[in-house]
Write a structure and sequence with these properties.
The chain is α/β, with parallel strands linked by helices. The protein has a single domain, classed as Nitrilase/N-carbamoyl-D-aminoacid amidohydrolase, CATH 3.60.110.10. Helix content is 28%, strand content 30%. The strands form 3 sheets. The chain has a 6-stranded mixed beta sheet. A hairpin with a 2-residue loop joins strand 3 and strand 4. Helix 1 runs parallel beside helix 3. The N and C termini lie far apart (40 Å).
Length: 261
């Protein structure tokens, strides 16, 4: 069985050292809970309220922040997805970095669907990405990507069994985010892990309520309350197969006139 942990934290704007200390505490707590993959929120390394000066906190990958996380990932034997501001080929991106249990950076997803002021700060990523994590196919999206059914569907059609969403969803969106999470899981017959920032940071107030939803659309963990915590869930491939047999959306899509050329 493959165990995923979704984390929740209140990040501090521009304070990487403080944020990474919180990341370290959550990694150690996740290890004690038997997690194999630990997911952190969007831009948790720097805080979200850095948009006005994101260039100042951008790092290349690998860089100081990922080296810190890589060291702990290797020590604890954990795979990690963590959100940060990335400098890449002269551009600045809202990125999620995948670090494996040996401490190696094995992939980077750069956010495709940018929201509001993000469009003025970040370059747009090029494509969705699915990674192999200890034999489980894991798709990665960031926050606003969740709100596009096509995005999750593209990951499912690429073999994803679990999609994780590092996020910074605002508090006023909490109810509709719950609908998105359950819909994306059910319509694709897979697990969805949601890791959100929490509390207040600058002018932003975040939803929190990080959770894992199963392929039948049911919440498999309690939504995390407060500004700091984690929730774990086992990914059961038999439940994925069961739900895809009961609701064969991916199979029937190939027969739909919408897919005909």
């Amino acid at each position: 069985m493959f165990r995923v942990a979704v984390t929740q934290m209140n990040a501090y704007s521009f304070d990487k050292h403080r944020n990474l200390r919180l990341v370290g505490r959550l990694l150690k707590a996740s290890s004690k809970r038997g997690a194999q993959l630990v997911v952190f929120p969007e831009l948790c390394v720097t805080g979200y309220s850095v948009l006005r000066d994101a260039v100042r906190v951008a790092e290349s990958v690998p860089g100081p922040s990922t080296r810190f996380v890589s060291s702990l990932a290797s020590e604890l034997g954990l795979n990690v997805v963590i959100g940060m501001v990335e400098e890449y080929k002269g551009g600045v991106y809202d990125s999620a970095v995948l670090i494996d249990s040996s401490g190696d950076v094995t992939g980077v997803y750069r956010k495709v669907n940018l929201w509001a002021a993000e469009k003025e700060v970040f370059k747009r990523g090029s494509k969705p990405v699915v990674f192999d994590v200890d034999g489980v196919r894991v798709g990665v999206g960031i926050c606003y990507d969740l709100e596009f059914p096509e995005y999750s569907r593209s990951l499912a059609l690429s073999g994803a069994e679990l999609i994780v969403y590092p996020s910074a969803q605002p508090a006023e969106c909490r109810d509709r985010v719950n609908i998105y999470l359950r819909s994306r899981a059910l319509e694709n017959g897979l697990y969805v892990g949601f890791s959100d920032l929490a509390g207040v940071e600058g002018e932003y107030s975040f939803a929190g309520s990080s959770v894992v939803v199963g392929p039948d659309g049911a919440k498999l963990t309690r939504s995390i309350r407060g500004e700091y915590g984690l929730a774990t869930c086992d990914v059961d491939r038999e439940l994925i197969r069961k739900e895809r047999r009961a609701n064969p959306y991916l199979e029937d899509l190939a027969l739909s006139p919408m897919t005909w050329e």
